[in-house]
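Hi team,

As requested, here is the filled-out complex form for the heme C run. I kept the field names the same as last time so the parser does not choke. Let me know if anything looks off before we queue the next batch.

— J.
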Amino acid sequence: MAASVLVAGLIFMSISVGVDEVLHKEPLEKVVYPVPALEMAAAPAEAESEAAVPLAVLLVGADPQSGRKVAKKCAACHDLSQGGKHKIGPNLWDIVGSARASREGFSYSGTLSGLGGAWTYGELDAFLASPKAYAPGNKMTFPGLKKPAQRADLLAFLRTLSENPQPLPAAE
Ligand code: HEC
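And here is what came back:
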């Protein structure tokens, strides 16, 4: 019994570094007790691997119509129409693939203008997950979209706001 628990423990150990710590803190003869804790520790690891579906794959199954609804959250601050004006945030027509902080006549924060590069699918996805964590000090006061599938829907919609929609990234 103790041996099988140990073996189970070893398997869990290889799954989770957090679990590794638990084992080291507990004296060996007590390993029998932390088993429920081990199972609990393993659960978030599974949830994470679910969240780790690559963006390119999520985009293949993404629904622009759902994305249109998600984009209502953006409309308070962003005009999405072609040639539309800037509001609290810059106009977002043709944003996918465009140079960052490049909209004429919008006064960006130093943080955002300092980023450089382009709004690729990947960069937009990371930014929209948590604008604050992505670019600390930027002035987009939006908490972020936690669900990867929801962000993919939104990106699938945003890409349609262009005369030449960016090709979807290749799914490996
Ligand atoms: C509360 C207002 C607000 C909301 C809501 C908001 N934004 Fe913003 N957004 C801003 C502001 C302000 C900036 C400029 C940030 C800066 O200069 O630091 C910005 C910048 C951006 C940029 C960078 C644009 C560029 O030209 O580089 C993108 C992309 C963006 N927002 C997308 C979104 C999307 C998509 C949503 C909806 C999920 C959203 N924003 C919701 C205010 C908002």
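Two things worth flagging: Residues 18-23 have pLDDT under 50 and may be disordered. The first helix runs from residue 2 to 15.

Thanks,
J.
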